[in-house]
Amino acid sequence: MFGTAPIEDAHDDLGDVWADGVVGCSGQDTWTGWWPGHLDCERLGWMIGPGLPDLARLLTQAVWDPQDHIWTAPPDHGRPR
């Protein structure tokens, strides 16, 4: 069951939204009002459609940046295949 947290409040169980054991999950995050990964998908251009983030791609291809606490594109992103 999910609780609620006001925007910008520290929230230590956002990991419940992700599958347990996701690499890079810090155990504490700030609730922004967006589901985890949504804004990262928008920033990376990984959207399935308007307002629909490609979270599967994010979790399988992106690289977690523990310093900046964001998902980044893999090093070979954008190279021709």
SSE string:
EEHEEHEE
Q: Low-confidence parts lasting 5 or more residues at pLDDT below 50? A: 13-25
Strand content: 15-25%
User: So how many helices?
Assistant: 2
Percent helix, as a range, is 10-25%
Quantity of strands, as a count: 6
Spatial strand sequence of the major β-sheet: 1-2
How far is it from the N-terminal to the C-terminal residue, by CA?
42 Å
What does the average pLDDT come to? Answer: 74
Biggest sheet layout:
2 strands, antiparallel
What is the radius of gyration? 13 Å
Shape: flat
Class by helix and strand content?
A: alpha+beta
What would you note in describing this structure?
- This protein is α+β, with helices and mostly antiparallel strands.
- It has a domain at 32-73.
- It is built from two helices and six strands, in the order E-E-H-E-E-H-E-E.
Précis, in short:
Helix content is 17%, strand content 19%. It is an alpha+beta fold and 81 residues long.
Tag the structure with descriptive keywords.
81 residues, alpha+beta, two-stranded antiparallel ribbon, two-stranded antiparallel sheet, 6 strands, flat
How are the SSEs placed, and which strands pair?
Layout: E1 10-11, E2 29-30, H1 38-44, E3 47-49, E4 52-53, H2 55-61, E5 63-65, E6 70-72
Antiparallel strand pairs: 1-2, 3-4, 5-6
